[in-house]
Design brief:
mainly alpha, 2 helices, 80 residues, single chain
Length: 80
Amino acid sequence: MPSKGSSTKKRRTAPKKVSGLTGGPKTTRKPTKKPPDASQKSTKGNNKPTFTELLNMEHEDLMDYIKTNGLDNSVPEKKS
């Protein structure tokens, strides 16, 4: 709703794409890959808690987990 005295102001329109302005190839921005959500972690046989889950564990639970499974400090392979 325009306020009083703004009749002379021109309504701002969305910037028009000027082709060939930068000279670079016209590419649409791809959305950046989001890290896989902890809630939808793959259940591929290895029932390992995620790093975040380990961080959020209570101290006793964490110690229990380490006692039963040992400290696994191997880096999981990145899926390409």
